[in-house]
Amino acid sequence: MTSTLQAFVENLNKFQIRQTLGVGEPDKKLSNHLAYNAPYEYEIQNPDKKVIGMIQEEVKKELVPFFVKNYYLRHQRNIKLKIINENHNPILYLKRSSYIMASTTLIYDERHEMLATIKRRFHPFIRKYEFRTKNQKLIGFVYAPIIKFWTFPIYNPRNKKIGIIKKRFPTIKEFLTYRETLKIQIGPISPEEKIMILAASIIISIELF
């Protein structure tokens, strides 16, 4: 793990991710967002709501226009995200591949070296995400019954609760523009676990909301 990444997650114990209107020109963000033509973008905020990082979808020009894929496939499409710190330095990359009711997300550092994976397992009544190292060692998981729509407890392999992800009740602006804010609280865990929880909160927002 690089020093820049370690410094970012060192005090990442309580934070939230807030969805914006998307990547693009400021005066066109709202129209693009409502027309499904805005790549994903989130702010990472500390408990005082200060922005300490950004999450942005990276989009390449392809034969099929972006808004067509986004409108018809939504979260079922493959997605690549870049995470930057408050100095605008890249610290993480996420590459997500989607399947029917399942997904795999690869986590890379700023040097594009693979760190870990997050796998969503299909279950009709449970939202389950497994956190695994690049050697496929299980170091944590999300296990959330569907009856608790906005709550996602996080456990280590010994079934000890180490954190929680919760969707905040949307503001009027968020409700009208189909955006959300997720609040995350985690205990005294390793930097690797914090990275996976940060990544999982983003994937949960995209896939489930």
Can you characterise this structure?
With 209 residues, this protein is α+β, with helices and mostly antiparallel strands. The chain has 5 helices and 12 strands. The protein has helices at residues 3-10, 29-34, 66-73, 172-176, 191-208; strands at 14-19, 41-45, 51-57, 79-85, 90-99, 102-109, 114-121, 126-133, 138-145, 151-155, 161-167, 181-186. A 12-stranded antiparallel barrel has the order 1-2-3-4-5-6-7-8-9-10-11-12. β9 and β10 (151-155) form a beta hairpin. It starts with a helix and ends with a helix.
Rg, please?
Answer: 16 Å
Structural class by helix and strand composition: alpha+beta
Find the count of extended strands (DSSP E, 2+ residues): 12
Uncertain regions spanning at least 5 consecutive residues: none
- N-to-C series of helices and strands: HEHEEHEEEEEEEEHEH
Instruction: Round the mean pLDDT to the nearest integer and report it.
Output: 90
Main β-sheet, in a few words? 12 strands, antiparallel, barrel
Strand content: 35-45%
> Could you say which overall geometry the principal axes of the C-alpha atoms support?
globular
Strand order of the largest sheet: 1-2-3-4-5-6-7-8-9-10-11-12
Task: Give the SSE layout.
Elements: H1 3-10, E1 14-19, H2 29-34, E2 41-45, E3 51-57, H3 66-73, E4 79-85, E5 90-99, E6 102-109, E7 114-121, E8 126-133, E9 138-145, E10 151-155, E11 161-167, H4 172-176, E12 181-186, H5 191-208
Antiparallel strand pairs: 1-2, 1-12, 2-3, 3-4, 4-5, 5-6, 6-7, 7-8, 8-9, 9-10, 10-11, 11-12
